[in-house]
Amino acid sequence: MIDLLSICSFNAAYAEAIDSDALEQWPAFFAQQCRYRITNVENERDGLAAGIVYADSRAMLEDRIAALREANIYERHRYRHLLGIPLVQEADAQAAVSRTPFMVARIMHTGETMVFATGVYADRFVMVDGKLLLEERTAVCDSTVTDTLLALPL
Amino acid sequence: MIDLLSICSFNAAYAEAIDSDALEQWPAFFAQQCRYRITNVENERDGLAAGIVYADSRAMLEDRIAALREANIYERHRYRHLLGIPLVQEADAQAAVSRTPFMVARIMHTGETMVFATGVYADRFVMVDGKLLLEERTAVCDSTVTDTLLALPL
Amino acid sequence: MIDLLSICSFNAAYAEAIDSDALEQWPAFFAQQCRYRITNVENERDGLAAGIVYADSRAMLEDRIAALREANIYERHRYRHLLGIPLVQEADAQAAVSRTPFMVARIMHTGETMVFATGVYADRFVMVDGKLLLEERTAVCDSTVTDTLLALPL
User: Fold this and answer.
1) How far is A137 from chain B (nearest CA, A)?
2) Cα separation of B123 and B138, whole Å?
3) What are residue A51's phi and psi, to 5 degrees?
4) pLDDT tens, N- to C-terminus, chain C (154 residues)
5) 3-class SS at C109?
6) How far is CA A48 from CA A40, B20, C22, C82, in A?
7) How far is CA A128 from the centre of its chain?
8) Terminus of chain A with fewer CB atoms < 10 Å: N or C?
9) How many Cα atoms occupy the beta-carbon half-sphere of A17 within 13 Å?
10) Residue C91 CA from chain centroid, whole number
11) Across chain C, where does the E strand assignment appear?
12) Bridge partners, residue A132, by sequence
């Protein structure tokens, strides 16, 4: 049975991988066949599937991280994810659906810190060989204004 | 026995109802006879009971939501609640007292995001027909400056 | 066995002590022989042990609080800690190692609220007479710019 605590632990490890610059670990939180999107609340309400960022396999997520390293984005800013308690909507031994609120601060090279994005992860988890993985994560941002610096994963 | 995880789950659902604009669900998180207040730390220390917002029944909370819909506040801004882990001070099978820190971001129609309010929920929970409900929630804001836009529930 | 929930509860009480101005309770969250540091991510990466703030016993933490009271810092600002879910890296019956992300807002006397610091607590916990205590807490701030107002404990 996938439960609240296992999703909490998953999310803690997910956020730590991004925020500690262990970006290469990030794709491994997803199933091989997966869907990762960043979109906003208005697009989501209107049923626009694409979003600001879209990937439909773990391989695409790996490509994305390789591109970020190439662009050397990390030198320019860091993120800090604060995640809320997941609202578990469905859960059994094999899969779970939950929503987890997020607030992400961006810390610039100059030291300036600001709230960069808020929203909710709409997630579908699956158990694969005893390991909890994301089959789908949609980061629905509350703000409809897309920052052109949007680069690190949410 | 009301425990930490049940309060965590309650709070996750409470925040999601507000932040996803399902405001009509909000009063149902409270017992019929309840007390909901928004106040600040200085007023609370001085024992001023009233606060910025005051309601003493679920019916008053329903009226408040109806008024918000009438005023069409939702078009103008959204909230995103990030809630901390509750500090459970007392708990048995029928009731619990806890304090939960909050940070609420406000997202304006323009996309601008800011930390709108921080503080702590001082709560008393009761079990009613097997369901956890708020008998009392006091949102004690850290800032003593009341924003005139204060409108959505905290 | 020290588990995720016991660390969550510990952190909730720790943050509440600071944010509710019960600063005199703060040293009691640490073992008598302990290490408390505030540093930043670049210093930590470079292995600089000292940090912005350094204490290596509970007595030093008590001195620090006494000094803060003397300086009457509390009148000038408050903090609100929002802590994430701990990532438990090692745990047995006697000790645990975990990382907990934090976001701290500062609320000035004027009511102005801002994100003051983000980062991660790198912690080592120990059980002493059945009580969970910090043997080591390093608050690793994401920003390398130290605010000269840095005063209250993180």
Assistant:
1) 17
2) 6
3) 80, -175
4) 999 999 999 999 999 999 999 999 999 999 999 999 999 998 888 888 767 788 999 999 999 999 888 876 656 788 999 999 999 999 999 999 999 999 999 998 888 898 989 999 999 999 999 999 999 999 999 998 866 556 788 9
5) coil
6) 10, 18, 49, 33
7) 19
8) N
9) 17
10) 20
11) 30-40, 53-55, 77-83, 87-91, 95-108, 113-128, 131-141
12) A127
Both structure tokens of B11 = 């709070």
Contact: B144, C111; criterion CB under 8 Å = yes
Q: What is the DSSP letter of C16?
A: H
CA distance A109 to A105: 13
* Residue of A25, C148, B121 lying closest to A10 (CA atoms): A25
Q: Which of A14, A53, A15 is nearest to A36 (CA)?
A: A53
> What is the residue whose two structure tokens read 């601060």?
A105
Task: Return residues 84-103 of A near B (CB < 8 Å).
Answer: 84-88, 99, 101-103
Report helix angle B4-19 to A4-19, nearest 10.
70
Are A47 and A147 spatial neighbours (Cβ–Cβ below 8 Å)?
no
Token pair of B96, please? 């619990």
